[in-house]
Specification:
There is one protein chain. By secondary structure, this protein is of the alpha/beta class. 42% of the residues lie in helices and 22% in strands. It has three domains: 77 residues, Arc Repressor Mutant, subunit A; 138 residues, Nucleotidyltransferase, domain 5 (2-Layer Sandwich); 163 residues, Nucleotidyltransferase, domain 5, CATH 3.30.420.40. The protein has 14 helices and 16 strands. The chain is globular, with a radius of gyration of 22 Å. The chain starts with 20 loop residues before the first helix and ends with a helix. Bound molecules: zinc ion.
Length: 414
Amino acid sequence: MNRTQITAGRDAHHRPRGVAAEELRRHNLATLLERLHLLGPTSRSELTATMGLNRSTIADLIGELASLGLVEEGPAQASSGPGRPSPTVSTRPDGATVLAVEFSVDSVAVATVGLGGHVFAQVREPRPRARVSPDKTIEQVARLARPLLESLPSGASLTGIGAGVAGVTRRSDGFVHLAPNLGWHNVPVGEMLSSGLGLDQQVLVANEADLGALAEYRRGVGAGVPHLIYLSGEAGIGAGIIHDGKPMLGAAGYAGEAGHTLVNPDGHKCRCGAKGCWETEAGEEALARHAGIPETVAGVGILDTVMARAEAGDETALAAIAEVGRWLGLGIGNLINVFNPQLVVLGGLYHPLFHFLEKAVYEGARLASLEAPGDVAEIAASGLGLDAPLMGAAELALSEIIADPAGRRQTGPG
Ligand SMILES: [Zn+2]
């Protein structure tokens, strides 16, 4: 897909017509910064052409972003067309840097990421499946984050913290109602993370599948695809939906709990209390059940065991993957009927299995979806793999400054 489509949702405006000039200027600053953040270094003349603004306006906007420490101009590149060579404009990763955190079922990950998606450093550590308390997990995050923050270039401006949790998360304050596969109920993750890290930057917490969707839409296999669904498979299944280029979160951020939609009334009991949820038929436990893996093998051990056997050509393992793929596809068919996506991205557990799953998933999806929406939808493996939600957490935290770069003038750089 064409990456220049990414910013199609936010166009530069050049005629005030009833909009306050100040508001217009801020809108154009945001559009310019978002463009550079997503598309990378761009010549000044190209920015002038693609944003539909005149040269002096572009020069003013670049000057303002540069004075805020967010972009810099490099040496002029000889242009292919007529006219003088045009300087290249790039984001400054140290101008706005965020801490990204991911609480997944089997691991905890932390990264420092700057504008332009530049990863300064990242680390992932296993997390035991045994129900580790939120306190202990936050301590683990703080321990991992400290050296990363200390190793940032001097003068780097830490502007925010973004975190992803595999659970039902309230966007407004980062309160996690239920993370069944982490064993957490009613945990104020946003607040705890803030005090655990001892940082006063804003903390934004979101569901990890929503963040996986955001990352794939901004930088992954779905870059610029305005209608996509990201599915994260780990212990359970979560869905993140991008609708018309924007995250579809529902009234409070709880949308996308597709793992707990009913697919088999005669199915297995789910951790949420219901029976026959999608994740009981297409999740990790179903994989273990069909592959005949003993209950003593849990968590990532299940995936590793099945993968090793499948790669060796073991027929039971291949059949187990196909059965899980079929159920996965049936559920995807339902989602295709409801949301009419162009792309369904399979992340988490399904990313390494994709090669083995693909055929069964397509067959299941075709069976469950209507012909017209089925024809439109492609299914692909995640482009960012295991790190998609972590990179989405960084994008979420960076989105604040990108939405209003001049807002920092009031607050001053970090
Ligand atoms: Zn359930």
